[in-house]
Specification:
two-stranded antiparallel sheet, 8 strands, about 25% helix, 4-stranded antiparallel β-sheet, alpha+beta, Muramoyl-pentapeptide Carboxypeptidase, domain 2, binds zinc ion
Length: about 230
Amino acid sequence: MLVTLTASTLSNGPAGAQSAANVPTLSTVEALTSSLPAPSPPAELVSPPHHDAQDVLRASATSDEVSRSMPRATFRTDTGGTVQCSGVVPDIGTNGHVPDESLCDLWQKPYRDRADAVVTLTKLNDAHTAKFGEPMCLTSGYRTLEEQAALRRKEPGLAAPAGLSNHGWGLAVDFCKETYTGIHGTWLRANAATYDWDNPAWARRGGSGPYEPWHWEYETGVNALVAAGLEK
Ligand SMILES: [Zn+2]
């Protein structure tokens, strides 16, 4: 299946991408410091680090001037690296088997998502950082089929059956409690739609699915799957 999902603003993305084996960083444990009364995702919903080689586009040879001229998909990671994501999705793959070339790292290791979702979520994160002086905190992104199945075994009431989660398409993230509650959560709910991200109706209080205020999805990507008959 060859599906090209290329935003016009991304057409001049970096072509000389170099693949580098990336050593996963064990970091970014959810900081549960908020005292606000909201549920936090079970520990089992926190994705393990990926041990596959990741396409991390290091920009060590890129000057700041060049970086500023790049598409808005160049960003710093929590470990000080720079990621460039073209936003181009040459192949959406199948649920839980999205090819590496269609994925990008998110700003917080070890999480990844589909490239177009990463580009727009990065814009939302930039706006959050401009407002609060810190990035949004993540606990999950893309999940392979194997990771979905393992999660389902641990949390049958919460995790979707393997192959049915939008995490498997690289179109969802889970946020830390500190990001989806309090003033950050209020800001998130007010601003995410501008960047086409949403806490879907099923995941809201009173929705048709489990109450998951931490679970957010890239709407354009999900709607395209539905239109293509690849999802309910
Ligand atoms: Zn989720």
